[in-house]
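User: Let's play a game. I give you a shape written as tokens, and you guess the letters that built it. Ready? Here's round one.
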């Protein structure tokens, strides 16, 4: 019997949010941050927008 695929979603923890805000302030490129946090660039952009912070070096 085949296994059911696990959902790829993962909640953002308080530490994740803190790290995202710190890198926003430091203007870390999204691609680099994506690898660091093991999340997609789109996910990071959406969360940053929801928090009202800019993301990436070009704003």
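Assistant: Ready! My guess for every position:
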């Amino acid at each position: 019997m085949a296994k059911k695929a696990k959902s790829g979603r993962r909640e953002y923890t308080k530490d994740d949010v803190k790290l995202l805000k710190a890198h926003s302030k430091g203007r870390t490129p999204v691609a680099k941050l994506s690898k660091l946090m093991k999340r997609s660039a789109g996910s990071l952009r959406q969360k940053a927008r929801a928090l009202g912070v800019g993301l990436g070096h070009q704003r």
